[in-house]
Amino acid sequence: MRLFRQLSWFLKEHKKSYLIAVLLLIVTGFIDLTPPWLIGKVIDGLRSGSMDRTTLIQYVVGLTVISIMSFILTYLWLAKLFGTAFLLERTLRSQFFTHLLKLTPTFYQRNRTGDLMALATNDLKAVERTAGFGVLTLVDSLNMTAITLVVMGVAIDWKLTLAALLPMPILAYAMNKLGSQIHGRFMTAQDAFGTMNDQVVESISGLRVIRSFVQEDIDVKKFDDVTTDVFDKNMHVAKIDVLFEPIIKLLVGISYLIGLSFGTYLVFTNDITLGQLVAFNIYLGMLIWPMYAFGELINVIQRGTASLDRLQATMRVKPLISSTPVVEITTPETIVLSDLTFTYPGTKQPALRGINVTIEQGKTIGIVGPTGAGKTTLLRQFLREYPLDRHMLQVNGVPYEDVALETVRGWTGYVSQEHLLFSKTVRDNILFGAGTATEAELQEAIRLASFTTDITMLDQGLETLVGERGVTLSGGQKQRLSIARAMLKKPKLLLLDDSLSAVDAKTESHIIEAIRTNREQATTLIVAHRLSAVAHADEILVLQDGQVTERGTHEQLMDHKGWYAEQFERQSEET
């Protein structure tokens, strides 16, 4: 019962609901034991000839009332018990999703999307089933078994009851052996389900690439292999799962045989009446469900425990970055990078080495360099996605770690290379960063991103659905929509990570001019491969192998005749 101990926080919080459900369940169990006793009385009365019409009607009315009461109470405890179980699922799903939002990129580099989807669906459902059906089977198997056995032993015959229970120790042993095997097999099956989810995510997101390389048949074959593996592992679980019911039926059947044989003998010896034998067999039949419930209890608990172990393994992962605010800063007036060196977790080679930069409010900093130089890595340090030494990154003389994480990201507008868009309208995607913005502010952000003309060409303008990940938009449209989203936020620190690569030179110049004229009091960092995007910057940093090899204004770097001047001249000739 380790799972119930792990869920004790929820059981304590909702103990009133569970207590009411359990009490109603127990009362219902007592009520359900009355009909067999009444039926036995009727049979004995009819057999002895002492049953008259009035008494028979009274028994029929009594059975009807009991049935109605049982129906009402069953409805009430079902609603209470399973309603609370669904609440657990919702609570766990909310906790799980909130925890995922706090985790840093390192976690997502180690864990596949498909596995996380499996945790949020199948595993949570298995835990919910334990909190509902598991509690039902636990209470019902113990309650109904105990009550029924007491009634059988006291009201009918204890010797007959004891004889009928002889196969039960064998049943308990079999359930324990099967339950221990279910746990490991179910864990393996859930892992396979996560792998299948991940394969589906990759195939759908990479559908264009698959088609362009004519790899549909190979991808289908890979998916067939994955689904076959999932099928095999679930069949491995099913081979144990399907043994529960036949074993229970076999042993209960043996109990029936013992009860009927020995009971007949007791009737002939006048130790019990025929009505008592009939009632006893009805009670024995009522034990089928508790025995079946006991088997299901072992099955459900083992599945739920396996799923909860998988969930808690993820929930125990601590984010590399935590918010421990010490100082409240509203505006980043001065940002200082002092000998900033950074190595990605799990690697040995530093991605950044000895970066020293001072960024004043209102300045524009350009960051350029060859592919893999560390430009994006440098930009992401301002988002606090990875831990740094306290002295390496400071704002207004205060270490970044001493400022609330929400504050840091609140004053930052980030446009990444991926340009992730949601399956909503253009309007919703732009308003994502500032949902309370007015229509005038929305239109101004669209104008600054040079996206106005494109919107007029869309079928439904701002209400056009962009599709999953913006599949209906071109690369340039995705970039400008992302820029509009960031500009609408009016960030005090704007980070553009190669966000103008898919637009033409004329559109690029319009966006750069809009940024220059509308962000005079705000700080902007621009990563670009096309150097014309940073030629206006107050300072340009040239990164190579994670180090700043050149720095200065456009004119200074052109005079320096280094990497920047060579690339700028080459790009100018190509243009």
Automatic annotation (TrEMBL):
The answer, when asked if Nucleotide-binding is one of the entry's keywords, is yes
- Keyword Translocase assigned: no
Q: Name one GO cellular component term.
A: plasma membrane
Report TM segments.
20-39, 59-78, 131-152, 158-175, 247-268, 274-294
Where the record annotates domain ABC transporter, the positions are 335-570
Chief localisation class: membrane
MF terms (GO), sorted A to Z: ABC-type oligopeptide transporter activity; ATP binding; ATP hydrolysis activity
Q: Name one Pfam family in it.
A: ABC_tran
What kind of membrane protein is this, topologically? Multi-pass membrane protein
Using the record's annotation, list all stretches that form the ABC transmembrane type-1 domain. Answer: 19-303
The cross-references to PROSITE patterns, in alphabetical order and at most eight, read: ABC_TM1F, ABC_TRANSPORTER_1, ABC_TRANSPORTER_2
Q: Where in the cell is it found?
A: Cell membrane
The protein's UniProt keywords, in alphabetical order, are: ATP-binding, Cell membrane, Membrane, Nucleotide-binding, Transmembrane, Transmembrane helix, Transport
What PANTHER family does the record point to? ATP-BINDING CASSETTE SUB-FAMILY B MEMBER 10, MITOCHONDRIAL, ATP-DEPENDENT PERMEASE MDL1, MITOCHONDRIAL
**Name of the protein in question:** ABC transporter related
Tell me which species this is from.
Answer: Exiguobacterium sibiricum (strain DSM 17290 / CCUG 55495 / CIP 109462 / JCM 13490 / 255-15)
